Structure formats: structure tokens, C-alpha cells
Amino acid sequence: MADILLDNMMQKIIDPHLHFFDLNKGDYHWLQPHNPPFWPDKNIIFNDFNESNIQLDSQFELAGYVHIEAGYDNNQGWREIERWESSATISMASMQVLNLAEHPDDFIDNITQGISRKSFRGGRHIIESPMAAKDSQNVIKNLKYLSKMKLLFELQIDLADQELCRWTLGILEQVGELQIVLNHLGFPPSAGTLPFKRWQANFKQLTQFKALAVKVSGFEMTNRAFSEDSIKQYCDYALSELSQEQVLFASNFPLVLFSYSYQDYWDMVFRALVSLGLDVNKLMYSNALERYSLTTLSPNK
């Protein structure tokens, strides 16, 4: 059925999670070969990437994308937004790097810089360990400011890490209403394992936040050999606790290149969603359109 549809219709896509790299202008400390993570295939992504690398064939129309910070300048995150806004030819939204532990005055200054860029919609903080009490208070204040400004918070966290999730959920419960977008579904481990059971329990707790959305993506981060069946399984995980309106499919480009070309990845996602009988348009296009307010943007060229 998916093949028939692919032959006879054009599906619009908004990719809500991708990264571009400009190695000459940006820092990208994590991307340098001599710095962690020490992936054996890291050379695949140690290149410049931009819009020219995400072209799709006539079966799909890439109508827009969300650029997620990638370490271009972690001290002045708006510079990364400026770099990619200047070359955008289709609608885009941008998520700036956040340091939630910094003093609230400095945090507000950085957010103010971001707000002056038309594609800015919020930011991402990769949570890797619980923070000390003083830093935790800053995190709460800064997240409350994001909420007050009606900005999105990109939450990237390993939901199988029990201690980390306990701390994070405790913080979020003190913030109140906040538009949270969970990156890569919180990295589900292999089904049937103890880490998977922990992930499952923490994912269920996270879904108590009604403004939550999740991005189903990042398969290659835990399994370079992921398949169409993997996509179906991740989709089942997400929809076991959430509505279709809360789920967005994304590519995590260029890291998806560890496993598939950009075209082959979206072909596979489309086939998986059609075979599951799901609302393809919502999951690949309109949910991202609405979540990131891309209707208010227009291309620069």
C-alpha cells in the first residue's frame, strides 16, 4: 500500500529536528575528531551540511524544518540562528542552545537576543547529570521564564537513567505549564531489558505534562542498523501514552547518515506510518507546523 501511495501522491514534510554544520565559522567542539564522543564512524558527519544536503525527490515536498543548535557557539547561541537564517530558502524555525544553570539575568539576556531573530522558537539543554541545589534553583527560574514567554523547551535526556529522571521530573513539577518537546523519544533501550522498563516508567511519568510533544527520531543513536520495524516499534511506544497530535517524526540529520540517506530515511518512515494506518500528514507535517508556528514564517528568498 505504501508503494502505491508513494507513486501517486506528494507528501509534505516538515523536519522538526535537524542540524547544519559550518566548520569554518562554528566551534563544534563535540564534532572534532580528537574530542568525545569517539564514534568509529564520526568522520561521516565531520563535514559542512546545509539545505543543499536535504533535497528530496518528487514523492515528497520538504516544506520546512526546525534547526536544532549543534554547538556553533555555546556562549552566544543566537549566532548560530543568524548563520542559518541568512541562507534559508524555505520556512524554518530555530532552537537556540540553552544553559539552564546560568544566572537568570544572563539567561534572560541570551533569550532576548534569540527573540530578536525571526525564526527563534525556544531552545535546547542536553541534560546529562543532576545539578547541585544552587544550579537547580536557576534551572527552575529559567524554565519558568521560558514558560512565561511561551517558548518551547527541547528536552534531551536518557529516560533510562533513573537518577537523572528523578531529578528532572522534580524540576519540571516545580515549573508548572511549560511547552516541552522530548528529543528522540528519550532514547528507548532494547525491549524486554531492565533499562527498557526504567525508560517505560519514566516516559509514562513525563506524559503527565499536558503540553508535552515527542519527536520520534534518533534511532541511529542507539542502533545503527535500525529498520522499518524499529520505526514501527518506536511509534508504538509513543502512541501507547500520547495522542497522534503530540507525536512528530524527525530525521536528526546529518546523524541519520550513519544509517541511511536522507531520502531513504523518509521513504522508510512513510511506509511504516502507512502500514500502521496512522495519520501520515499529522505525524510528518502538520503537527510540526503547528508546534513550531511555522505558518508565521516565510522563506528569505
Put simply, the count of helices is 9
How big a fraction of the residues is strand? 15-25%
Can you identify the CATH superfamily? Metal-dependent hydrolases
Principal-axes shape call:
globular
Task: Give the strand line-up of the largest sheet.
Answer: 1-2-3-4-5-6-7-8
Overall number of strands: 8
The average pLDDT value, as a whole number, equals 94
**SSE string:** HEEHEHEHEHEHEHEHH
Overall number of domains: 1
Terminal-residue CA separation: 37 Å
CATH class: Alpha Beta
The CATH topology turns out to be: TIM Barrel
Largest sheet: 8 strands, parallel
Describe this structure in words.
It is a single chain. The chain has helices at 2-8, 78-85, 104-115, 133-148, 162-175, 194-206, 228-239, 262-275, 280-291; strands spanning 11-18, 60-68, 91-97, 120-126, 152-156, 179-182, 213-216, 247-249. Helix 4 crosses helix 5. Helices cover 36% and strands 16% of the residues. It has 301 residues and is an alpha/beta fold. Residues 1-7 and 296-301 have low confidence and may be disordered. The protein has one domain (2-296): TIM Barrel (Alpha-Beta Barrel), CATH 3.20.20.140. The chain is globular and about 50 Å long. An 8-stranded parallel β-sheet has the order 1-2-3-4-5-6-7-8. 39% of the residues are buried. The protein is built from 9 helices and 8 strands.
